[in-house]
Design a protein that fits this description.
The chain has 9 helices and 10 strands. The protein is of the alpha/beta class. Strands 1, 4, 5, 6, 7, 8, 9 and 10 form an 8-stranded parallel sheet that branches. The longest helix is centred in the middle third of the chain and has 19 residues, at 170-188. It is globular, with a radius of gyration of 18 Å.
Amino acid sequence: MKKVFFAVLLTVALIFSGTEVFTSQAQKIDEIAEVVEGSKILVLNYHQIDNKANPLAIPPATFDAQMKYLVDSGCVTITPDELYAGLNGELELPEKPVLITFDDGYVDNYTNAFPILKKYGLHATIFVIPAFTSVNPNYMTWEQLKEMEANGITIESHTLTHPKLEELPDDEIRSELLNSKNLLEQNLGHPVEFLAYPTGTYNLHIAGIAQNVGYKGAFTIKYGIVDCGSNFFALERVPIFNTAQNTMKDFYERIAWRQSFEEFGWSKK
């Protein structure tokens, strides 16, 4: 295991120090293999795919390169249901499972990200805000969501209006979680059983309410890899940002660096 760990870090070092951003196919596979192997599930967290000067907006060309990197490395995209079944021992996951997620449901997820995902045959999950759907022009429409679902994209809940749940009384938390779930189910015609907490804010009490209204799991923005030690209502993700220096290098680093935490035995909190 340590040998693999140092090989991962060495690969990252080569990426940083070399003259080329992209390494050979063999190097890329070595870099990512251990991180997403077996029961470890890499969950990537995106927001916008756009050329805006915003840390949460990944340029489409960069997003394309990141998706190609995953495909070239042998990763297989899965759905939240498959993640859930895999951790429960009900489904054998692929060797390198990756869950690609987007928060909020911005329209650029349809115009920019969707064509790239289709290009590489990748599945993804979008946690949408149904109160904004077909209302705010910066967000997707119900028709766009249905088209995406027909082509390998899963739509789940990001609460009704995207409040900070920790600042709300219990009745409003329940309303945000339940009304979002119900509205999505009514418009999309299928159960909605997964949630991403707005701004990543949550606690055990909020998680309990989410479970009581019918969710099976919830995703945070806590940096980490999902495995058998994860809490279904506090699932880890690896947020991906647009950085001033080099977004692709940061992407490589964020995937590989998490491995050092696990190798040194630091536990999930």
